[in-house]
Known about the structure:
The chain is mainly β. The protein has one domain. Helix content is 9%, strand content 27%. It contains one helix and four strands, in the order αββββ. A two-stranded antiparallel ribbon has the order 1-4. A two-stranded antiparallel ribbon has the order 2-3. It is elongated. The relative contact order is 0.21.
Amino acid sequence: MKIDAIPLFEGTSEEFRKETDPCLRWKTYKTGQEIINREDVNTDILFVAKGSVCVLIYTLSGREVRLDDIEAGNFFGEM
């Protein structure tokens, strides 16, 4: 995969993309695999290049609450 797969970077200069692309780390996650835990300290921005991500939280009683679905082309995390 390359930076060109991320819509956020459309319209940026080729020079910018060439400089930024090596800074990106591409990871693949399995269906149902946890990506980020709300207890973790995280300063990453994650881009969904393919598929979708489901954002869940759990209540004190353990009930799962679905907050959002993030589709390919979007991003989440800290900025």
